[in-house]
Amino acid sequence: MAYGAGPELWLVRHGETEWSRDGRHTSTTDLPLTPEGEAVAEGLSAVLGDEHFDLVLTSPRLRARRTAELTGFGSAETDDDLVEWDYGSYEGITTAEIRETVPGWTVWSHPVPGGESADAVAERLDRVVARARSVDQALVFGHGHALRALAARWLGLPATDGRLFRLDTATVSVLGFERESPTILHWNA
Q1: Which of 101, 102, 116, 182 has a 20 to 30 Å separation from 108 between CA atoms?
Q2: InterPro entries per the record (predicted)?
């Protein structure tokens, strides 16, 4: 069911993986969903099943593609712009472990050695925003930090403002418009 006037972008964060469950930064490591992650992702089909999407995209990572498949969107187009923020040297490491050597570190406020900058993430996610705004209703399957940054870019905010939006695994969020203003219509459900 469409929520508002203007284009809508529905976001689905992939189901739980072993590393997402354990708080490990996961960008390029291609992990499968846990059995729990598969079950919860499959349940999202009830939320998405009655919707018509003009554009359905997924990150090429296994965890996002499998979530798309389990929700009934196995034919989603892969889009490299939807990959997770590249954590570089911090791949597989928790925030607590990183803070042992870099106090106060967050992906939103500090450099990521060997990884992506917030500006690089914003540049590729702006392409997703443009594609989504060219249709009435789009659906994307992706990852925690990247989807949070995508929401910020939809709203016209810096990618780093994605820090303001908690996003759990196997959740659905909807971005849209109120009159001419981009807005969050539904978040982290």
Answers
A1: 182
A2: His_Pase_superF_clade-1 (IPR013078), His_PPase_superfam (IPR029033), PGM_Phosphatase (IPR050275)
Q: Are 17 and 25 in contact (CB under 8 A)?
A: no
Q: Distances from the Cα of 32 to the Cαs of 28, 40, 70, 127, in angstroms?
A: 12, 14, 13, 27
CA–CA gap between residue 23 and residue 19 (Å, rounded): 6
pTM over 0.90: yes
pLDDT over 80 (residue 1):
no
Q: Is the pLDDT of residue 124 over 50?
A: yes
116 is catalytic: no
Give 26's pLDDT tier (boundaries 50, 70, 90).
very high
Q: Does 84 qualify as catalytic in the annotation?
A: yes
Which residue out of 14, 25, 143, 145 is catalytically annotated? 14
Checking if the pLDDT of 2 tops 80, the result is no
Q: What is the mean pLDDT of residues 75-86?
A: 98
**What's the 3-state SS for 113-151?**
CCCCCHHHHHHHHHHHHHHHHCCCEEEEEECHHHHHHHH
- Specify the CATH number of the domain 8-142+151-186: 3.40.50.1240
The SS3 call for residue 85 is coil
